[in-house]
Amino acid sequence: MNNEQLVELITKEVINKLKTMLMDKNMAAKKKVLVLEHKETLCSELTLSLEKNNYIVDCIDNMGDLSSYEGIILQNIKNGELANLAHGIEGSIKEKVVIQAIFNGNKLYSMKKGVEYRKFEGTSNRLFFNMFKEYEDKLMSYGIEFVGLKELIESLNNKPICLEEPTCKTLVKNDIETVEVKENKETYIDLTNKKLVSEVELRTIFNQGIKEVLVSKKSIITPLAMDFARVNRLKINKG
Known about the structure:
This protein has 239 residues and is of the alpha/beta class.
């Protein structure tokens, strides 16, 4: 092997090493989420959307330590699972992981389209249907966010859901009324029409520069929402 061939070989080795290091660095920079499904039942639309936003998607078959995930996602939630989780019952692997994640304070999401009982709203006995609605409300009070795909990505990326600039002093967005207080030029949010206030909503409000919210005395504020408000000094007034 002459000097020219040796230089060429060394150059190729260096380039390959740099490529490997770059790939490892990119993988390390990506954040992970856990979708509570087996690999063969993962929703391709959900998985592709998460991967497109630079998330590594794990499933039940290869899940790691729960603390390593930015979010834990319930792709589907059957009626029995909803009832069990509302009462803190551990049956399936999925239920055990969700209950442990609640105890750990992990971010938990349930995809709205995957909530089974909602499909029977038009046919079910109303009292029976409302019983499952109460189960869902319980899970929301435990900190589980029921979201669409867009809301999921925005919450994981810590981006506000409402991005439009207000064009007037009073603007209604997603059932949230924004009112400007003329005396000090600050703003507050009126959430008195909300039965349940989630961490996602408070994060969205905070990212818009709002420092104060008004809620009903009967409103349920999730534990994650209370933690977020306390850490970020977001004032919550009950009216």
